[in-house]
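Audit log entry. Action: structure prediction of a protein-small molecule complex. Ligand: zinc ion. The ligand was supplied as SMILES and no pocket hint was given, so placement is left entirely to the predictor. Protonation state taken as written. Sequence taken verbatim from the request; no trimming, no tag removal. Recorded inputs:
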Amino acid sequence: MTEKSTSDETGPAPSAMPRAANAVLTVDLEDWFHVCGDPTYSDPSTWDSRVKRVHVGSEKALELLAERGARATFFCLGWIARKSPSLVRRIASLGHEIACHGDLHRRVFEMSLAGFREDLRRAKATLEDIAGAPVLAFRAPEWSMRTPENPALAVLVEEGFEIDSSLMAVPPIGPITNPRAAVVLKTSAGPILEAPPLVGPFFSRPAMLGGGWTSRLSRRARIEAAMRSALAQAESPILYLHPWELDDEHPPMRLSPVARWVHFAGRGRVLPRLRHFLASFEFRPLAETHRETLDAKIRRPGAGLRIVEAPAAPDSPERSEAAA
Ligand SMILES: [Zn+2]
Protein backbone atom coordinates (compact mmCIF):
# COMPACT_ATOMS: atom_id res chain seq x y z
CA MET A 1 0.00 0.00 0.00
CA THR A 2 1.05 3.60 0.29
CA GLU A 3 2.24 3.20 3.89
CA LYS A 4 5.79 2.33 2.97
CA SER A 5 6.24 5.33 0.72
CA THR A 6 5.17 7.79 3.41
CA SER A 7 6.80 6.11 6.41
CA ASP A 8 10.36 7.05 5.47
CA GLU A 9 9.49 10.39 3.91
CA THR A 10 11.44 13.14 5.62
CA GLY A 11 11.10 16.13 3.31
CA PRO A 12 8.83 17.61 0.68
CA ALA A 13 7.05 15.13 -1.58
CA PRO A 14 9.11 14.05 -4.56
CA SER A 15 7.93 16.14 -7.50
CA ALA A 16 7.36 13.04 -9.67
CA MET A 17 4.73 11.74 -7.26
CA PRO A 18 1.14 12.92 -7.47
CA ARG A 19 0.05 14.87 -4.40
CA ALA A 20 -1.65 12.64 -1.90
CA ALA A 21 -3.07 13.17 1.56
CA ASN A 22 -0.54 14.20 4.17
CA ALA A 23 -0.57 14.54 7.92
CA VAL A 24 -1.20 17.92 9.54
CA LEU A 25 0.41 19.08 12.77
CA THR A 26 -1.42 21.86 14.56
CA VAL A 27 -0.17 23.77 17.59
CA ASP A 28 -2.57 25.70 19.81
CA LEU A 29 -0.31 28.66 20.60
CA GLU A 30 -1.31 29.50 24.15
CA ASP A 31 0.46 29.57 27.50
CA TRP A 32 0.20 27.09 30.38
CA PHE A 33 -2.36 29.24 32.23
CA HIS A 34 -4.84 29.45 29.34
CA VAL A 35 -7.32 27.07 30.93
CA CYS A 36 -11.01 27.55 30.12
CA GLY A 37 -13.64 27.98 32.81
CA ASP A 38 -11.24 27.83 35.76
CA PRO A 39 -11.63 30.50 38.45
CA THR A 40 -7.88 30.63 39.08
CA TYR A 41 -6.67 30.88 35.51
CA SER A 42 -9.30 31.96 32.98
CA ASP A 43 -9.52 35.65 33.97
CA PRO A 44 -7.40 37.64 31.45
CA SER A 45 -6.72 40.33 34.08
CA THR A 46 -4.50 37.80 35.92
CA TRP A 47 -2.43 36.79 32.90
CA ASP A 48 0.06 39.66 32.89
CA SER A 49 1.25 38.68 36.35
CA ARG A 50 1.98 35.07 35.40
CA VAL A 51 5.31 33.72 34.25
CA LYS A 52 5.34 33.39 30.46
CA ARG A 53 6.53 30.07 29.10
CA VAL A 54 4.93 29.86 25.63
CA HIS A 55 8.24 30.44 23.85
CA VAL A 56 9.88 27.39 25.51
CA GLY A 57 7.63 24.71 24.04
CA SER A 58 7.15 26.68 20.83
CA GLU A 59 10.87 26.78 20.16
CA LYS A 60 11.13 23.01 20.76
CA ALA A 61 8.33 22.38 18.26
CA LEU A 62 9.93 24.75 15.72
CA GLU A 63 13.28 23.01 16.13
CA LEU A 64 11.80 19.54 15.53
CA LEU A 65 9.82 20.80 12.54
CA ALA A 66 12.94 22.40 11.06
CA GLU A 67 14.94 19.20 11.49
CA ARG A 68 12.48 17.44 9.21
CA GLY A 69 11.70 20.29 6.85
CA ALA A 70 8.07 20.04 7.97
CA ARG A 71 5.60 22.90 8.29
CA ALA A 72 2.65 23.18 10.66
CA THR A 73 -0.40 25.28 11.45
CA PHE A 74 -0.24 27.41 14.60
CA PHE A 75 -3.63 28.38 16.06
CA CYS A 76 -2.56 31.53 17.91
CA LEU A 77 -4.37 33.51 20.55
CA GLY A 78 -4.62 37.20 19.72
CA TRP A 79 -3.47 37.89 23.29
CA ILE A 80 -0.31 35.83 22.76
CA ALA A 81 0.41 37.68 19.52
CA ARG A 82 0.18 41.06 21.27
CA LYS A 83 2.44 39.91 24.12
CA SER A 84 4.92 37.98 21.97
CA PRO A 85 4.74 39.44 18.45
CA SER A 86 8.29 38.39 17.62
CA LEU A 87 7.39 34.74 18.31
CA VAL A 88 4.40 34.84 15.96
CA ARG A 89 6.40 36.73 13.33
CA ARG A 90 9.16 34.14 13.56
CA ILE A 91 6.74 31.23 13.21
CA ALA A 92 5.25 32.85 10.09
CA SER A 93 8.69 33.64 8.65
CA LEU A 94 9.61 29.94 8.89
CA GLY A 95 6.77 29.10 6.49
CA HIS A 96 4.22 27.86 9.03
CA GLU A 97 0.58 28.81 8.76
CA ILE A 98 -0.76 31.31 11.27
CA ALA A 99 -4.34 30.51 12.24
CA CYS A 100 -6.67 31.82 14.95
CA HIS A 101 -7.50 30.38 18.39
CA GLY A 102 -9.63 33.38 19.41
CA ASP A 103 -8.42 36.46 21.22
CA LEU A 104 -8.85 35.74 24.94
CA HIS A 105 -9.32 31.96 24.92
CA ARG A 106 -13.01 32.18 25.65
CA ARG A 107 -15.31 29.27 24.86
CA VAL A 108 -17.73 30.03 22.04
CA PHE A 109 -20.81 29.24 24.13
CA GLU A 110 -19.71 31.67 26.86
CA MET A 111 -20.13 34.59 24.45
CA SER A 112 -23.05 36.10 22.54
CA LEU A 113 -22.67 35.87 18.76
CA ALA A 114 -21.79 39.58 18.78
CA GLY A 115 -19.20 38.94 21.49
CA PHE A 116 -17.79 36.03 19.51
CA ARG A 117 -17.49 38.22 16.42
CA GLU A 118 -15.74 40.93 18.39
CA ASP A 119 -13.24 38.46 19.90
CA LEU A 120 -12.66 36.95 16.46
CA ARG A 121 -12.13 40.29 14.71
CA ARG A 122 -9.63 41.48 17.27
CA ALA A 123 -7.64 38.24 17.08
CA LYS A 124 -7.69 38.05 13.26
CA ALA A 125 -6.65 41.69 12.83
CA THR A 126 -3.84 41.28 15.37
CA LEU A 127 -2.55 38.08 13.79
CA GLU A 128 -2.73 39.32 10.19
CA ASP A 129 -0.99 42.55 11.13
CA ILE A 130 1.87 40.67 12.83
CA ALA A 131 2.15 37.71 10.46
CA GLY A 132 1.59 39.74 7.29
CA ALA A 133 -0.60 37.03 5.77
CA PRO A 134 -4.33 36.22 5.69
CA VAL A 135 -5.59 34.14 8.61
CA LEU A 136 -8.02 31.58 7.23
CA ALA A 137 -8.42 28.86 9.83
CA PHE A 138 -10.01 28.92 13.28
CA ARG A 139 -10.03 26.56 16.24
CA ALA A 140 -12.38 27.24 19.15
CA PRO A 141 -10.86 27.08 22.64
CA GLU A 142 -11.71 23.77 24.28
CA TRP A 143 -13.52 22.50 21.17
CA SER A 144 -16.42 24.77 22.10
CA MET A 145 -18.01 24.96 18.64
CA ARG A 146 -19.69 21.65 19.50
CA THR A 147 -21.96 21.02 16.45
CA PRO A 148 -22.18 21.85 12.70
CA GLU A 149 -25.43 23.71 13.45
CA ASN A 150 -23.69 26.30 15.64
CA PRO A 151 -24.49 29.76 14.14
CA ALA A 152 -20.98 30.85 15.13
CA LEU A 153 -19.76 28.95 12.05
CA ALA A 154 -21.63 31.46 9.87
CA VAL A 155 -19.88 34.26 11.76
CA LEU A 156 -16.56 32.66 10.84
CA VAL A 157 -17.54 32.73 7.16
CA GLU A 158 -18.70 36.35 7.40
CA GLU A 159 -15.39 37.31 8.99
CA GLY A 160 -13.35 35.75 6.17
CA PHE A 161 -12.47 32.36 7.59
CA GLU A 162 -12.40 29.36 5.25
CA ILE A 163 -11.55 26.54 7.66
CA ASP A 164 -12.79 25.52 11.08
CA SER A 165 -11.01 22.85 13.12
CA SER A 166 -13.20 22.80 16.22
CA LEU A 167 -15.66 19.91 15.95
CA MET A 168 -15.10 16.63 17.76
CA ALA A 169 -17.15 13.45 17.39
CA VAL A 170 -16.28 12.69 20.99
CA PRO A 171 -19.04 12.96 23.61
CA PRO A 172 -19.45 15.06 25.70
CA ILE A 173 -17.36 17.53 23.66
CA GLY A 174 -19.42 16.90 20.55
CA PRO A 175 -22.04 14.41 19.35
CA ILE A 176 -20.88 11.19 17.76
CA THR A 177 -22.51 12.34 14.52
CA ASN A 178 -19.96 15.16 14.09
CA PRO A 179 -17.64 14.74 11.10
CA ARG A 180 -14.46 12.71 11.64
CA ALA A 181 -12.71 13.83 8.46
CA ALA A 182 -12.59 17.05 6.46
CA VAL A 183 -15.96 18.02 5.05
CA VAL A 184 -17.56 21.14 3.59
CA LEU A 185 -20.29 22.50 5.86
CA LYS A 186 -23.02 24.81 4.63
CA THR A 187 -23.75 27.80 6.85
CA SER A 188 -26.26 30.61 6.33
CA ALA A 189 -23.33 32.79 5.22
CA GLY A 190 -21.75 30.27 2.85
CA PRO A 191 -19.59 27.15 2.94
CA ILE A 192 -16.73 26.46 5.33
CA LEU A 193 -14.32 23.54 5.42
CA GLU A 194 -14.50 21.63 8.69
CA ALA A 195 -11.23 19.84 9.42
CA PRO A 196 -11.50 17.94 12.71
CA PRO A 197 -8.49 16.45 14.51
CA LEU A 198 -7.91 12.70 14.48
CA VAL A 199 -10.49 10.64 16.38
CA GLY A 200 -10.21 6.93 17.08
CA PRO A 201 -11.11 4.23 19.61
CA PHE A 202 -9.98 4.41 23.25
CA PHE A 203 -11.37 1.64 25.48
CA SER A 204 -14.04 1.00 22.80
CA ARG A 205 -15.23 4.61 22.76
CA PRO A 206 -14.46 7.38 20.29
CA ALA A 207 -11.69 9.56 21.66
CA MET A 208 -9.28 12.26 20.63
CA LEU A 209 -6.24 10.49 19.25
CA GLY A 210 -4.82 13.59 17.56
CA GLY A 211 -3.83 15.13 20.89
CA GLY A 212 -4.84 15.72 24.49
CA TRP A 213 -4.83 13.35 27.43
CA THR A 214 -6.51 10.35 25.72
CA SER A 215 -3.95 10.57 22.96
CA ARG A 216 -1.10 10.83 25.47
CA LEU A 217 -2.37 7.76 27.32
CA SER A 218 -2.95 5.75 24.13
CA ARG A 219 -0.25 3.56 22.70
CA ARG A 220 1.73 5.25 19.97
CA ALA A 221 1.01 2.32 17.64
CA ARG A 222 -2.73 2.96 17.99
CA ILE A 223 -2.34 6.59 16.94
CA GLU A 224 -0.05 5.65 14.11
CA ALA A 225 -2.50 3.02 12.85
CA ALA A 226 -5.31 5.59 12.88
CA MET A 227 -3.12 8.01 10.94
CA ARG A 228 -2.25 5.38 8.33
CA SER A 229 -5.87 4.33 8.05
CA ALA A 230 -6.87 7.95 7.35
CA LEU A 231 -4.10 8.38 4.78
CA ALA A 232 -5.13 5.15 3.04
CA GLN A 233 -8.56 6.73 2.57
CA ALA A 234 -6.99 9.92 1.17
CA GLU A 235 -7.83 11.78 4.38
CA SER A 236 -5.32 13.98 6.17
CA PRO A 237 -5.02 13.11 9.87
CA ILE A 238 -4.69 16.15 12.11
CA LEU A 239 -2.58 16.08 15.27
CA TYR A 240 -2.54 18.85 17.85
CA LEU A 241 -0.38 19.89 20.77
CA HIS A 242 0.26 22.82 23.08
CA PRO A 243 3.64 24.43 23.82
CA TRP A 244 3.20 23.67 27.54
CA GLU A 245 3.13 19.94 26.72
CA LEU A 246 6.76 20.27 25.63
CA ASP A 247 7.91 22.34 28.61
CA ASP A 248 10.01 20.43 31.19
CA GLU A 249 9.69 23.29 33.64
CA HIS A 250 5.92 23.75 33.48
CA PRO A 251 4.95 25.80 36.56
CA PRO A 252 2.89 23.97 39.21
CA MET A 253 -0.86 24.57 39.01
CA ARG A 254 -3.77 24.71 41.41
CA LEU A 255 -6.29 22.42 39.72
CA SER A 256 -8.90 19.89 40.76
CA PRO A 257 -7.64 16.27 40.66
CA VAL A 258 -9.55 15.62 37.42
CA ALA A 259 -8.34 18.81 35.76
CA ARG A 260 -4.79 18.03 36.90
CA TRP A 261 -5.04 14.58 35.31
CA VAL A 262 -6.36 15.99 32.03
CA HIS A 263 -3.64 18.64 31.92
CA PHE A 264 -0.57 16.67 33.01
CA ALA A 265 -1.12 12.91 32.43
CA GLY A 266 1.27 11.39 29.91
CA ARG A 267 2.83 14.74 29.09
CA GLY A 268 6.35 13.26 28.90
CA ARG A 269 5.35 11.25 25.83
CA VAL A 270 4.51 14.25 23.66
CA LEU A 271 8.00 15.26 22.61
CA PRO A 272 9.39 11.79 21.69
CA ARG A 273 6.18 11.01 19.83
CA LEU A 274 6.33 14.26 17.93
CA ARG A 275 9.86 13.41 16.91
CA HIS A 276 8.72 9.96 15.78
CA PHE A 277 5.70 11.18 13.82
CA LEU A 278 7.72 13.90 12.10
CA ALA A 279 10.16 11.20 10.99
CA SER A 280 7.38 8.88 9.83
CA PHE A 281 4.91 11.10 7.98
CA GLU A 282 4.85 14.05 5.65
CA PHE A 283 3.33 17.16 7.23
CA ARG A 284 1.93 20.25 5.56
CA PRO A 285 -0.14 23.15 6.92
CA LEU A 286 -3.92 22.93 6.96
CA ALA A 287 -4.81 25.46 4.25
CA GLU A 288 -2.15 24.07 1.95
CA THR A 289 -3.32 20.50 2.51
CA HIS A 290 -6.89 21.41 1.57
CA ARG A 291 -5.99 23.94 -1.09
CA GLU A 292 -7.86 22.21 -3.89
CA THR A 293 -11.07 21.95 -1.87
CA LEU A 294 -10.77 25.57 -0.77
CA ASP A 295 -10.26 26.72 -4.35
CA ALA A 296 -13.10 24.63 -5.71
CA LYS A 297 -15.72 24.88 -2.99
CA ILE A 298 -14.98 27.58 -0.44
CA ARG A 299 -12.96 30.44 -1.79
CA ARG A 300 -14.61 33.44 -3.33
CA PRO A 301 -12.84 34.96 -6.34
CA GLY A 302 -10.18 37.41 -5.24
CA ALA A 303 -9.96 36.14 -1.65
CA GLY A 304 -6.24 35.66 -2.24
CA LEU A 305 -4.39 33.04 -0.22
CA ARG A 306 -0.65 33.30 -0.30
CA ILE A 307 0.80 29.80 -0.39
CA VAL A 308 4.43 29.22 0.51
CA GLU A 309 6.10 26.38 -1.36
CA ALA A 310 3.18 24.42 -2.67
CA PRO A 311 4.43 22.81 -5.85
CA ALA A 312 1.71 21.29 -8.00
CA ALA A 313 2.28 17.79 -9.28
CA PRO A 314 3.44 17.90 -12.91
CA ASP A 315 0.70 15.50 -13.97
CA SER A 316 -2.07 17.81 -12.81
CA PRO A 317 -1.54 21.24 -14.37
CA GLU A 318 -4.95 22.48 -13.28
CA ARG A 319 -3.70 22.60 -9.69
CA SER A 320 -1.13 25.28 -10.34
CA GLU A 321 -3.46 27.93 -11.67
CA ALA A 322 -5.81 28.08 -8.72
CA ALA A 323 -3.45 29.50 -6.10
CA ALA A 324 -3.06 33.02 -7.38
ZN1 LIG B 1 -6.70 26.45 23.79
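Audit: result stored. The first helix runs from residue 3 to 7. The beta strands are 24-29, 73-76, 97-100, 137-138, 163-164, 183-187, 190-194, 199-202, 205-208, 238-241.
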